[in-house]
Amino acid sequence: MATQIVTANRLGDGLVIYLAQGGAWTDRVEDAEIARDEGDATALLARAEAPDQATRVVGPYLMAVIDEAGVPRPASNREIIRALGPSVRTDLGRQALTRASEG
């Protein structure tokens, strides 16, 4: 089994988010809780699909990541694009924020 995290979209604004420790949600993939085996992945997804989460997120699912010294990084092109934000308007989303902080 690949190392996995849980991703979803925030219900209020559609932002891509990730399940972090303690049931919190974060917009930073680096802060997501990592599941390293099938049992952990099943439990992590069950927490994301709990009834109380239905008012916060939509469409939670497990996503494969590369574990770089305890820091998850998206393993697929699709998830890399989701993590960065819109690919047609790089002046929006996380790309714009990254560029602004570098300049």
Walkthrough of the structure:
By secondary structure, the protein is an alpha+beta fold. The protein has one domain (4-102). Helices cover 28% and strands 28% of the residues. It contains three helices and five strands. The longest helix has 11 residues, at 38-48. The protein is globular. The N and C termini lie far apart (40 Å).
Largest sheet, spatial ordering of strands: 3-2-1-4-5
Distance from first to last alpha carbon: 40 Å
> What order do the SSEs take from the amino end to the carboxyl end, as H and E?
EEEHEEHH
Treating each run of at least 4 consecutive H or I residues as one helix, how many helices?
A: 3
Number of strands: 5
Q: Sheet bearing the most strands, described?
A: 5 strands, antiparallel
Helix-strand category = alpha+beta
Measured by DSSP, the beta-strand proportion falls in: 25-35%
The parts where pLDDT drops under 50 for at least 5 residues are none
Structurally, how many domains make up the residues?
Answer: 1
Q: Tell me, what's the shape?
A: globular
Q: What integer is the average pLDDT?
A: 88
| Rg calc | 14 Å
The portion of residues assigned to helices is: 25-40%
Give a brief outline of the structure.
The protein is of the alpha+beta class. It has helices spanning 38-48, 77-84, 93-102; strands at 4-10, 16-19, 25-26, 57-68, 71-74.
